[in-house]
From TrEMBL:
Keywords: Hydrolase, Metal-binding, Protease. The keyword Transmembrane does not apply. GO terms for molecular function: metal ion binding; peptidase activity. Gene3D superfamilies: Zn peptidases. It comes from the Eukaryota. This is M20 dipeptidase. GO terms for biological process: proteolysis.
Amino acid sequence: MIQRFNNSTEYIQHKNLQSMQKNPLIRLFEVILIKRECYINDLWELVGHETVSSRDNTRDKLDRAIEWILKRLVALNVVAFGEHMGMQILPDSLKIIRMPKIIIGILKSSSEKRTILVYGNLDVEEALLEDGWVTDPFVMTEL
């Protein structure tokens, strides 16, 4: 028998009830599938931030990307903040400026659970067409 739903909320509630009895990893993948478009849109927006850390004229864009991520982490109940870690010398101008903030976040649910460290970076090296790029590196492209 085919089950019919009046709206997407009923369907999601039904799927949530079904997935509560399943393996947590299966539930995770189901949530990812349900929210796939949201995740792709967020990635699209994040890739659009020109986050070249070696250029002074794009540092404000890198700072906006950091704030963008911090805002999303806080929305997920992560205690998150950005912290400057020192100074850097820009290679082209030899100008000394503050390094980009690093993001620190803590999501505490239980003292019995293991600690997980997630590390990544969002500042990038200069991407030039002569280096082999065939598309704009700050426009998400599927090839």
